[in-house]
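Write out the bound-state structure for XIL.
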Amino acid sequence: MGRLGGCVNTGSARSRLVSWVVGVSVISMLFATGATACVALPAPAPPQPPDCTDPVCPLAAAARGRGIRVGAAVEADDLISNPAVADAVRRHFTSVTTENALKLSVVRPSPTLWNWGPADTVVAFAETNDLEVRGHTLAWVNESGSQNGLPAWMRDLNDPSEFRTAILDSVSAVVGRYQGRVDRWDVVNELFEYPVGVQAPSAFDRLGPDYVAELFEVAHAADPGAELWLNEVFTEVFPAKGDALVALVSSLRDRGVPIHGVGLQTHLTLSPAAPNPGSVSGLVARLRALGVEVAITEFDVPLGPLRTEQQQVDIYRQVTAECLSAGCTEITVWGVGDAFTTLDTAGQRQNNPLLAAFFSLPSTPLLLDVNLRPKAAYAAVVAALQRTPTPG
Ligand code: XIL
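---
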């Protein structure tokens, strides 16, 4: 159903959305029992994919067909408490990312308390259902909104050697525990300052200027078979961040640091505009030329007055196709379905004023709707998976 601008509910009463399909367009009007100013706007109706009741749905089938992963960020509680979520993950995706379960704030909330339950649940679920696991994330560098995944007690360790011991022991313990079971780790997350490509000031500076290399070495020692990734945000809007990523990865590779992949988060929350054509494929190609894998790791495309559902569909198709055409090996969305997006939470909207300014609440940014049914964006990603040629 098209979400349309133009209707303003000025009353406080409960509203309901009624839609008519007229030819190829959907006309929606918001009716409310309170005082409502309502304007009907036509919008193109994106093709709706059929619901999928098969054990393996088109998204997972297309990903397996071309030998890449499609993933979703998940929380253990949602897998446990909601069988529909577990079922949707199992049928539509081939990989899961631990949304919060492996952040040190969850795993090690105090120096003596190790909370493995949530991560164990996600990893066991993946094993039972033949899914891959992306371990997210060992060192979330940028401290905007204090959401960097460090427990308070670690952030407060001002003595560099105590901080070093706490971080490195934790990284070793976490990676070591899941040796052979989690085969990809986001070792370092959001390293660069917004918008420029310089390292963000961070608690991790206490480790010294070469801490990125040190973290990769420690993770590698804990599981020499695991792929180790750097994960970055907003590279599609800030070319300087892409340049900085390329320079850093190049220098790490030259020095023999064990880095195997770069994740582009692709939260498209700063502007309603589509990424510039070629910005995703260009960066993916430059990174791959350095010998690393590249993935989209946290895809979401929220709707707002300046971004319609059709534009959401087109952006999902464009970005997925660009990434695949340049050789991406994974496309992961940040949430199983629209009911689970983090973009609608107060914290995210406070930390990103542009998200709050440009995008609706709810922002319905994902591939499955609130009832976990495939959306038009899902069909677009499937089509991109099926039709995009692989690079020669
Ligand atoms: C978010 C989670 O989705 C939220 O539940 C949590 O409160 C904060 O972190 N970039 C990242 C992810 O790398 O770890 C963030 O996840 C979203 C932005």
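---
The first strand starts at residue 7 and ends at 9.
Residues 1-40 have pLDDT under 50 and may be disordered.
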